[in-house]
Structures are given as structure tokens and as C-alpha cells.
Amino acid sequence: MFRQIADALREAIDKGRYREGDKLPSETDLVDHFGVSRMTVRNALSLLQQEGLAVSEHGKGVFVRPRPPVRRLASDRFARRHRDQGKAAFTVEAEAAGSRPEVDSLEVKEERPSQDISARLGSPRKVLARRRRYLLDGRPVEFATSYLPLDLARNTPIAQPNPGPGGIYARLEEMGHRLDHFDEEIRARMPSPAEVRTLQLASGVPVIHLVRTAYDSEGRPVEVCDTVMAADAYVLAYQLPAN
Amino acid sequence: MFRQIADALREAIDKGRYREGDKLPSETDLVDHFGVSRMTVRNALSLLQQEGLAVSEHGKGVFVRPRPPVRRLASDRFARRHRDQGKAAFTVEAEAAGSRPEVDSLEVKEERPSQDISARLGSPRKVLARRRRYLLDGRPVEFATSYLPLDLARNTPIAQPNPGPGGIYARLEEMGHRLDHFDEEIRARMPSPAEVRTLQLASGVPVIHLVRTAYDSEGRPVEVCDTVMAADAYVLAYQLPAN
DNA sequence: CAGTGGTCTAGACCACTGT
DNA sequence: CAGTGGTCTAGACCACTGG
């Protein structure tokens, strides 16, 4: 029964009878309309939320989930030519798209690396960790941590909260680590409770987990950036040569 | 209360007191242990399932979700050098990884393209659609549809269920469409009910939606491949040049 | 068969929202 | 304040699993 109710609502949403942001019938309405108990109705609404089709707001109602504008990450976003500006890439790009960018909870620390990070960076004893959260129009969309071998980053502008124009990649190149290429690994999964909090994720929204490793021209890994993104806010775009 | 129960179980899982595939305490056990009603316990277990930490099996119990082996898709997987074999790339690679590959529900049809596909392919009136499902060790992991402009694919080996060694990309190149590059777009979201069925997805498992467009050396889009993957079965890997 | 999870009921009280 | 969703109870019957 609760599946039938969910199907009915899903179809109504698909057919446009309810649009993004519209309020669905209240639980009481559905109880009356379908002649079932409230738990059954709640079960149906819960299904739609798990599918990412609806969000509930306490005291207000259940709404068709609005599709936020997505941020497109192009595969050339770290190309050197995009780096000679005074502002961070995120800021430039967000303003170009007409959004209000913010960077938040910036934290720079020396740490002992996790096993995974350590392996990717060639087993340094300690690393510099740069954490920050990105927001668009007040909405958190991404939480990222950069790790650099401490022997490379200590007492450099990279250890400062604001590393200066062009970001840490520009600083690395100034320090003689000409960047050669980046490896990116992409996974998708449901968020942990902590991630739900920091990214203010609605239920039914997965995260994209991206781990990028930057290599210098000698093949040494110089940075690993671990990024968790709200999946409904991003499209990742890559261009691959046919050979 | 149900959050506390979920927290307790989550912590026990994180700390390894329950391992992958282990059975969690039954609902009755939890009711007795925490002194709450069954709905409260079910609420807690449902949370863990939404997080992708647990799966329930009717009549058996609730189990810590096993992490299946992931398939790594490298960004050079369509490089020409990987194409001169007799078998499909999926098959070769799966066997190398020690898995048993299968391809399933193969279907080749002429269709009118959706608006999105049409735009990507330069607005052909009709397209050839090649649908197929991929399985590893009996488990569905990916459902893919390739679309090609019909004027390009009609009456060619591409319109056959088995297009021959090297797949449709090899055939396209034989037909004079030398491939130049691919664009890939990646999104993650929760699956539709239909996708849950065809990929046999557990709750709490998102899908990765990948749309790849192949361009020939004249810049013409010659194929769009729309792929939906079980997110717990894949890591996508890309290599980006620093310039 | 006993034990498990799946569904549903009927009712209660609470917390949040907007008027 | 009325209307909304959030949580919880106590109980019932069902469907599936395994011995």
C-alpha cells in the first residue's frame, strides 16, 4: 500500500503536477484520501525522500525537492593558464556563474597522515593539512582537505591561511615543483552523519568523494586533495584523448 | 532515542565489533536491550540502511553491508591501443581482475532520440540505440546505452548485436571516423525504482551517471554512451595534464 | 516449526511553523 | 492558535528463512 501511495506521488511529480518546491499533500490529507493509517503514509513519503524526490520540513510540509544549480568542474580547471589571477579559482568561477561564493572554516594544521594519505604521498612522517568548506549563495557544497608533505610545505606561504594569488599550486611551482599531472579518483556514496551536518545535506542526496594527487615533473607526489561534494551540486566533466 | 540506538550500532560497526557481512542483533534483541518499542528499533536500523552501512534480508536478519570489490575505470580505457583485442574491454578487464564477466539484455533498436541525446549528437532525426547490462560474478553493476546517429550506423556492423573485435569504436574508425577525443560528464544521485530493479541495488547505494560523447577528428559527435553504474562497484580514475 | 524482518493500525504527545 | 511533521507505543498479521 505505501508503495502505491509513493508511486502515485512519484508519477504526479514526474508528470509535472507538482513542480520543484511545491508542497505535497499533508500527511493528514493522504491519510484521508487513501484511507490508511498515518504510518503507512509516512512510509510512502519516506520512500520519496530516500529517492531524493522530496524533502520534508518540520512544521511546514513535504516538498518536491528543488534541484539546485549545479557547478560544473571541467577537467582543465587546474591548467596553469587558469592560475595567474589574484583570486581563488572557486571564487572567480562562482562569480562568473552569478553565484555568491564563500570559503569557510579554514584550518591549517600539521598532522600525522592517515594510512591512505600517507601511501599516496610517499609515506611522509608528517603532513600539512589545509581544510576548508566552500559555499555557494550560503549553501555548503564542498568540503576539502589538502595534504602536503611537511618537509615541503613547512615555513612557506602554503602554511599560511591565505597562500596568495594562484593558490598553493602556484606556490609549489615557484618553489621549483613544476606540476606535471594530476590523478583523480572518484567515488559516490551516502554521506556519514558528520558529512550530513557540514554539508547540510537533505536525505536522498549522496556525496561525490574525489581524491586528487598532484605530481611534479620528477614524478613526486606533492599534494593530495581529499574532497567531499554534495552530489546534487556538481557535474564533473573530463576530456579524454582517444590516444 | 532511535538515533542513539543507530549511533551505538554505527560505532560498533566502525570499531569492528561487527564486520562486513556480520549479522546485527535482531529487532527483538534490540527491543529487549534498549527497552523501546519495535518501531523505534526499526527506525534506527532504517537509518543505518539509508547510510549504506547495513542491509536487511527478509527472514534472515540485518547485516553489515559487505563492500564488494570495486571496478576501477581508468581514463585511458578507450585508448586505441586497448582496442586491438578480440574481446570486449569489459570482458578482458574483468577476467584480469579474477571476476566472471557477463553481458546481458543486449538490445539494438532504432529510436527517436531524447532531447538531451539529440542535442549532444547534433540533432539527428533518428538514432541507433545499443542497450546492455554488465554483470560481475552474477551481480549487475552497470547499465549502458550507446546512441549513434542512424545515418552513420544503419546497415553497418554497429547495428549487429555483436559488432566484432574492438567494439563499435573500432568499427567507427574503420568507417573513416577516426576518433579524436571523448567528453565525459559524471553525476551521482539516488537510483530510480527502475534502476534499483535492474541493478539490484541495496538501499543506501547511489548510482554514478556517466554520459560520454565520442568525437571524430572532424569534431563531429559520433556516439553518446549513457551509463548508470552501481556506485559501490566503481572507482573512476582520471589523469589530467597540468597543462 | 521458530525466528526473522515487512507492513499496517490507532492512538498519543511533542516540536516547529505561520497566522 | 491550528496545522504541520517527528517520535514513540502496543499490538496485530504477514512473508520469508532455515532447521
Automatic annotation (TrEMBL), chains A, B:
Residue ranges, compositional bias (Basic and acidic residues): 101-114
InterPro entries with a match to the protein in the record: Bact_HTH_transcr_reg, Chorismate_lyase_/UTRA_dom_sf, Tscrpt_reg_HTH_GntR, UTRA, WH-like_DNA-bd_sf, WH_DNA-bd_sf
Keyword DNA-binding found: yes
GO biological process, one term: negative regulation of DNA-templated transcription
One GO molecular-function entry: DNA binding
Ranges where the record places region Disordered: 94-119
Superkingdom to which the source organism belongs: Bacteria
Segments forming domain HTH gntR-type: 1-67
One Pfam family per UniProt: GntR
Sorted UniProt keywords: DNA-binding, Transcription, Transcription regulation
Protein name from the UniProt record: HTH gntR-type domain-containing protein
